[in-house]
Amino acid sequence: MAVPARRTSKTKKNQRRSPKKLDQPNVSVDSKTGDAHMSHRVSLDGYYNGKKVI
């Protein structure tokens, strides 16, 4: 099995992981209720795409 010759430094490790940061969630406003919710998710009232689903 292959073994690394040297330990990876903290800087190199952090540079490799840098594109994996968390982005802000996309928040959209429901046209019927006016509530803010995450995109492609059912709102707290049970509406999705202007229709009652729950």
UniProtKB/TrEMBL annotation:
UniProt keyword list: Ribonucleoprotein, Ribosomal protein
| InterPro entries assigned | Ribosomal_bL32, Ribosomal_bL32_bact, Ribosomal_zn-bd
Using the UniProt annotation, give all residue ranges assigned to the region (Disordered).
1-54
One GO BP annotation of this record:
translation
Stretches of Basic residues bias are at: 7-19
Q: Which domain of life is it from?
A: Bacteria
Instruction: Supply one GO molecular-function term.
Output: structural constituent of ribosome
**Quick check: keyword Ribonucleoprotein in the entry?**
yes
Sorted alphabetically, the Gene Ontology cellular component annotations on this record are:
large ribosomal subunit
Q: Which HAMAP family match?
A: Ribosomal_bL32
- Quote the NCBIfam families the UniProt record gives: rpmF_bact
The similarity comment for this entry is: Belongs to the bacterial ribosomal protein bL32 family.
Q: What is this protein called?
A: Large ribosomal subunit protein bL32
Q: Which organism is it from?
A: Secundilactobacillus malefermentans
Q: What is the lineage of its organism?
A: Bacteria, Bacillati, Bacillota, Bacilli, Lactobacillales
